[in-house]
Amino acid sequence: MLAERRHQLILRALRSGGPAAVTDLSEQLGVSAATIRRDLVKLEEDGLLTRVHGGAVADEGDQPFAEVAEVRVSEKDAIAARAAAMVADGQSVLLDIGTTAYRLARQLHGRRLTVITSNLVVYEELADDEGIELVLLGGMVRREYRSLVGFLTEDNLRQLHADWLFLGTSGVRPGGQVMDTTVVEVPVKRAMIKAADKVVLLADAAKFPGTGMARVCGPEDLDVVVTNAPVDPATRSSLEEAGVEVAVAGEAET
Fold first, then answer.
1. Where is the HTH deoR-type domain (predicted)?
2. Is the omega angle on the peptide bond into residue 64 within 30 degrees of 0, that is, cis?
């Protein structure tokens, strides 16, 4: 069995059945315990699981929107409030997929703005706000994740420009690399970065280092990181060396 197929089966087993022992995975897949241990090391390096004594447990990974929306709401609201304060009336704002972008959309009611998004929940939140010019990007619908993706979304972005992009992530590596768990979302995120003057990463404390096997961009592509807690020294150093401002929600602006 190819390693890639084993990895898929291991993750499926962990996500459906919870934590599993090396011996159980070895029996299920018909390979040696040593092979399973090597697979677990690789999957942990990719941010897809956590090894525990004698086995492993799956990380959150690419969870449906409804599940993630109920997690760390107060932290996301603090980040959203800090991010909303950066935007001036009359400007254009590009909002990424994800729940923190949705919390930010809730902060934009009553503003005179243009909002561009592939996030269906952002669209639903702002659809009745007549003060906001709302642009919904086209694309294939990912129903459980409430987003639009694909070449149509990317083509739309090539025709547009925004003053601000507020970008989500599943993890930020110590070197400042922005990661994602979902490969299909990465080209859209990269197209958003190209379409914006200023790129702001929204990342709560759980995103350092978070998860993700697919690289979205490096710190050189960011202007600001907004978070809710102090960033670990290695990551903060990498960001600041690249000229990225780190803004912590709740701290006074300087």
1. 3-58
2. no
Cα–Cα distance, 81 to 228 (Å, whole number): 11
Q: State how far the Cα of 181 lies from the Cα of 170, in Å rounded to an integer.
A: 6
Q: Which amino acid is at 234?
A: A
Q: For residue 65, which of 100, 14, 107 has the smallest C-alpha distance? A: 100
Looking at beta carbons, which pairs linking 49-57 to residues 24 or more positions away fall under 8 Å?
A: 49/10, 49/11, 49/14, 52/19, 54/21, 54/22, 54/23, 55/19, 55/20, 55/21, 55/22, 55/24, 55/25, 56/10, 56/14, 56/19, 56/20, 56/22, 56/25, 57/14, 57/18, 57/19
- State pLDDT tens for residues 92-125: 999 999 889 999 999 999 999 999 999 999 999 9
Residue 144: the pLDDT is 77
Q: How far apart are CA 249 and CA 254, in angstroms?
A: 12
The tokens describing 37, both together, are 């241990």
Confidence at residue 252, expressed as pLDDT on a 0 to 100 scale: 57
Residue 48: enclosing H or E segment and its boundaries? none
Query: Within a 10 A sphere around the Cβ of 126, how many other Cβ atoms?
Result: 22
